[in-house]
Amino acid sequence: MELVNVAKEVHLSAKNPHNISEGLSKVISKHATLHIHPQIESLHEDGLVLFVDGSSTIADTILYCTGYSYSFPFLDTKGIVAVDDDRVGPLYEHTFPPSLAPSLSFIGIPRKLIGFPFFESQAIWIAQLLSGKRTLPSWEDMMQSIKEFYKSRDLAGIPKHNTHDLADFDYCDKYADYVGFPHLEEWRKELCISALIKSEINLETYRDAFDDHEMLQVAYQSPHFTQLEYLDYTQ
């Protein structure tokens, strides 16, 4: 959206242009040169962009804002771990392939959560397993857990390509319990939710809002900031 200040026109293509956030609606209504369309049907050499509803435009530049897909071209597991429609699996707790655990593990696969504390708890769990201080469930139990997780996602109507989109504070806390890692602090959860709500309402300006002073004061007193005490989670 920052491009509206420098480009003659900006055209957005979305799967469901009629189901956009309040924040995006505000931005579109504010800028006459910002347009939204359904999905792209085809691209042509002369710059023509044809959309599925039959409309079209001429584009000088196309930016693919589709996020990212998981890919591990450097990793040969003989088919034990595969990426299928952005589902990396099978992975026990999004981390361990049961047939290769704990010698092979993945950090950072889950999305839509407060990343770095979660990734730190993953690293701690892996270190504990490799050092022999903890053990994993049996292969059968891990595979059963994975199957149950996949089934729960299917029943909830969550498409396969969103398998690792967790958006669940409780899951982060449950994962932390595996290794004795602290639960997410309430201020961190509140800060995350507050930012998400603001982005939904004021997409163009929410990054410039600084009304989180009280939560920051609480945050500054947490161990993550003070580092007054060393906690050994490997014990």
- Looking at the structure, what is the overall shape? globular
Strand content: 5-15%
Count of DSSP-assigned helices:
7
Judged by helices, strands and strand pairing, the structural class is alpha+beta
What is the terminal-to-terminal distance? 49 Å
Helix content: 25-40%
Overall strand count: 7
How do the SSEs run, as a string of H and E? EHEEEEEEHHHHHH
Q: What Rg do the Cα atoms give?
A: 22 Å
How do the strands line up in the largest sheet? Answer: 3-4-5
- Spans of at least 5 consecutive residues whose pLDDT stays below 50 are none
Largest sheet: 3 strands, antiparallel
Whole-number average pLDDT? 88
Overall tally of domains: 3
GO molecular function, one term: NADP binding
Protein name: Flavin-containing monooxygenase
Organism: Cuscuta campestris
EC number: 1.-.-.-
Write a short abstract of this structure:
It is an enzyme of class 1 (oxidoreductase). By secondary structure, the protein is of the alpha+beta class.
What does this structure look like?
Pfam families: FMO-like. The chain is α+β, with helices and mostly antiparallel strands and 235 residues long. The protein folds into three domains: 10-58, no CATH class; 82-178, no CATH class; 186-227, no CATH class. Helix content is 34%, strand content 11%. It is built from seven helices and seven strands, in the order E-H-E-E-E-E-E-E-H-H-H-H-H-H. The chain has helices spanning 22-30, 115-130, 139-155, 169-179, 186-201, 213-219, 223-226; strands at residues 10-13, 34-37, 40-43, 48-51, 56-58, 82-84, 87-89. The strands form three sheets. Strands 3-4-5 form a three-stranded antiparallel beta sheet, with no helix packed on it.
